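lol forgot to send this yesterday, sorry. struct tokens for the thing we talked abt
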């Protein structure tokens, strides 16, 4: 088995996660989402190393076993790049589409929908009189 180097981690092409990998990626990211939102990768790694490793391997498209043989600096470099690419993609591309879809569905159903922090569309809370 080849060992992933820091140079490779810094130059490996990273693209947004594909739909086929999305369920596994989201499962891996969910336990570390709060720390990541706070920009605290160290806390994410110390509390949920398995999730960081899994999300990084999925997002980078490298076999987990290969990433597990690397040194921690490689993990940090690669995890940072994976998170940057996917956070930017989701913020710029996916969330606006989800918001527009929720508004469209809400106008059809007569119930306003919102996209919550979980990203799911849900009926808006409260009633108007």
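and heres what i got for the seq, position by position
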């Amino acid at each position: 088995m080849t060992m992933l180097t820091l140079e490779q981690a810094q130059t490996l092409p990273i693209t947004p996660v594909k739909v086929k990998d999305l369920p596994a990626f989201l499962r891996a990211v969910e336990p570390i989402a709060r720390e990541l939102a706070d920009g605290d990768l160290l806390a994410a790694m110390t509390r949920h190393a398995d999730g960081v490793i899994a999300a990084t391997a999925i997002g980078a498209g490298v076999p987990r076993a290969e990433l597990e043989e690397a040194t921690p600096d490689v993990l940090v470099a690669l995890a940072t790049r994976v998170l940057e690419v996917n956070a930017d993609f989701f913020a710029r591309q996916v969330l606006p589409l989800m918001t527009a879809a929720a508004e469209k569905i809400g106008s059809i159903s007569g119930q306003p929908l919102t996209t919550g922090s979980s990203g799911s569309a849900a009926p808006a809370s409260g009633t108007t009189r």
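The chain is about 65% helix and 5% strand. anyway ping me if u want another try
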